[in-house]
Amino acid sequence: MRFGLNILLNRLLKTEPDTLIIINPKASSGKYENDIDGFCNALRNQLGKNITIKITKKAGDATRFTRKYIKKNYTKIIAIGGDGTLNEVANGFFEPAPKYITTSEKLHDLILISSKVVFYIIPGGTRNILAKSLNIPTDPIEVCNNLKTLKPKKIDIISVVSQNSRKKLQIRICLNAAEIGIGAEIIDRAKIIREKINSRIVSTALDNFHTSFVSE
């Protein structure tokens, strides 16, 4: 009887994880790749050991992880990475767009998965533009060690409907800026080059040279 009661009490007292940490080890050309354990230890000291950590390996992982765990009732999403990683996580807060819509009007009906989730930003990229605009310190370890002192704030978002390479309409969420025209093309091509050259600065410089050469 006592044994059964202990099992019941343990089940009642056991808390389910509610915090997801998404880490992009390739952000900032892998600058913080060797510091992942340090990030995790600092966050465990702040939040306890009952957390889930996911490492991204390819584009889109952060969006998929965010969406999956919000639907599992996680209420804290912590992203360690650059502006691209933060953008992917932000897109995961919303339901994906329907696959067969052919007009852009209905795509703007964004469906928020949960209004109870807080998005924590830990800058780990090259420029960290969003973090700077929100006055968040750019040292990721400093932010990890002071996570509890951060105060949540609401920000506006931008929703953009675009056509992907397969000529299908898609919706993307932007947190602070969006590129169109030649700027967007440079970024898109730089991502392809970066798959072979693990340096944001070098890949962007090479693509700028290529774009300028073609333009002439």
Report Rg.
20 Å
SS strand fraction: 15-25%
Strand order across the largest sheet: 2-1-3-4
Instruction: Please summarize the sheet with the most strands.
Output: 4 strands, parallel
Structure annotation, total helices:
9
**Helix fraction bin:** 40-55%
- Strands, count: 6
* Average pLDDT figure: 76
Which shape, going by the Cα principal axes?
globular
Low-confidence stretches: 1-14, 201-216
- CATH architecture term of the domain at 16-156: 3-Layer(aba) Sandwich
Provide the succession of SSEs: HEHHEHEHEHHEEHH
Which homologous superfamily in CATH is the superfamily of the domain at 16-156? Answer: Probable inorganic polyphosphate/atp-NAD kinase, domain 1
Taking the alpha carbons of the first and last residues, their distance comes to 84 Å
Q: What is the SS-derived class?
A: alpha/beta
- What name is given to the CATH topology of the domain at 16-156? Rossmann fold
| CATH C-level of the domain at 16-156 | Alpha Beta
Describe this structure in words.
The protein has a domain of 141 residues: 3-Layer(aba) Sandwich (Rossmann fold). It is globular and about 45 Å long. α4 packs across α5 and α8 crosses α9. The chain is of the alpha/beta class and 216 residues long. It is 40% helix and 15% strand.
